[in-house]
Specification:
By secondary structure, the chain is of the alpha+beta class. Helices cover 20% and strands 32% of the residues. The strands form 5 sheets. Strands 10, 11, 12 and 15 form a 4-stranded antiparallel beta sheet that branches. Strands 3-7-6 form a 3-stranded antiparallel beta sheet, with no helix packed on it. Helix 1 packs antiparallel against helix 2 (26-51).
């Protein structure tokens, strides 16, 4: 094909010379030039297809998955992108990205640049410092959580890509009172806490909770700092009953 392109280019140059001497018609010279350009275009197309024999990664990384073996027949993606399969997966493992999902109550306090700490439960000695890189900007309508991305340096290979990690975000939040989840008492559909008065009597106080982490409940209104609350209070205890309090853990 290359030789054919060279030959047709020579014919086109000869035809250009002959047409100047009125030895051939202009149409014949134009046809020779067209034939040469078509042949040269075919050579370039062949070179492009030949280049596909070598896979060049768009970035430096590690092959983490391989989908074809030597000698396998591969589908031409140019003809059928839907049925074509990838050959390999390349991952940049020197720098990883962690996805965290703060809930609705914490999401408003998270900002890009906030410090974060990444730990692994199976390797408690590893603590990696990082910062919040970017936020999705809206809550997931199904989970009411905010997608938070944290990029961090993993050149030491301490974390294997795909691992589950624990993330602690250090954010500025308003001061809230918290009580143990066991202190929450539901009366109908309204939340209360059983406050122990200075006279050691029970006073059921309605509160306004604001989320919980499974161990503690935030209290917006209804409780004052320093007040004592009862835990795991039985249903038989009524308003004003006298109790003998003791500190948790005793």
């Amino acid at each position: 094909m290359v030789a054919d392109a060279k030959n047709k280019r020579l014919n086109a140059e000869r035809a250009r010379t002959l047409v100047k001497r009125d030895m051939i018609a202009q149409q014949d010279a134009d046809q020779a030039e067209t034939d040469a350009e078509v042949a040269e275009a075919n050579v370039k197309a062949l070179a492009t297809m030949k280049a596909y024999e070598v896979l060049r990664a768009p970035f430096a990384g590690t092959v983490t998955a391989r989908y074809a073996d030597p000698g396998a027949l591969l589908q031409n993606a140019a003809n059928s992108q839907t049925s074509a399969l990838p050959l390999v997966t390349i991952s940049e493992i020197d720098r990883l990205r962690v996805y965290a999902y703060p809930d609705q109550h914490d999401a408003t306090f998270v900002h890009a640049g906030d410090p974060a700490e990444i730990t692994l439960s199976e390797r408690p000695g590893i603590r990696l410092g990082a910062r919040v890189t970017r936020l999705s900007g809206e809550l997931d309508p199904k989970t009411r959580t905010l997608l938070t991305e944290i990029d961090f340096d993993n050149r030491d290979g301490l974390i294997v890509p795909g691992s589950f990690v624990e993330v602690s975000l250090r954010v500025r939040t308003p001061a809230y009172l918290q009580v143990p989840s066991d202190a929450l008492v539901m009366r109908g559909d309204k939340p209360f806490v059983a406050v122990i008065t200075p006279e050691n009597t029970v006073s059921f106080r309605p509160i306004t909770p604001s989320g919980d982490d499974g161990q503690h409940v935030r209290v917006l209104t209804g409780l004052k700092k320093g007040e004592r609350v009862a835990l795991n209070l039985g249903e038989s205890v009524a308003e004003g009953d006298r109790v003998q309090p003791f500190e948790a853990g005793q």
